[in-house]
Amino acid sequence: MKFVIIIMVIVIIIIIIIIIIIIIIIIIILIIIIIIIIIIILIIITIIITIIIVIIIIVIIVVIIIIVIIIVVIIVVIIIIIIITIILIIITIIITNIIITTIIIIIIIIIIIIIIIIIIIIITIFIIIIIIITTTIIITTIIITIIIIIIIIIIIIFIIIIIIIIIIIIIIIIFIIIFIIFIIITWLSCVHNPSLCCNDIKFAS
Length: 205
Fold this sequence. Notes:
Layout: H1 2-95, H2 98-192, H3 194-204
């Protein structure tokens, strides 16, 4: 009888050790999964931030190039207009009187002003469009990043809950097994020593 009880105790100890090992393994797996998910999140965020920075840099470079081209065009146009004006003034002075010259100068000045205003309006519209596009890209990217992070966090929480449930189920099963073993040991004790069993029954009653 003592030998049977010793075997049962050893079995219980082995089961408890197995439970502890299983729980430790599950915890290690959980930690590894969480670390992997965190690394994936960091990689995704880094990629998104890099894309945003690259897009912003490209947009800025394009805007600068376009503005420089427009400024150069404006300067060239103004220089050409000034040269034409000077030539016309000289021709007018030679051919006609001062009144006609003045009218021509005024007309040319008005044309220059109109051209400059049109170019400024075009530049402004272009810059506004670029700002809107850049802002939209940045906001969209940020929203996508937030959604990805939320989804990953939900997945992590779900995994943790599942693992906790599994651990609880394993512990319950182990306790049930231990309880059954305890009942078997008690029954064997009663079989080998009926008087003890009877005393227990009397005590319980």
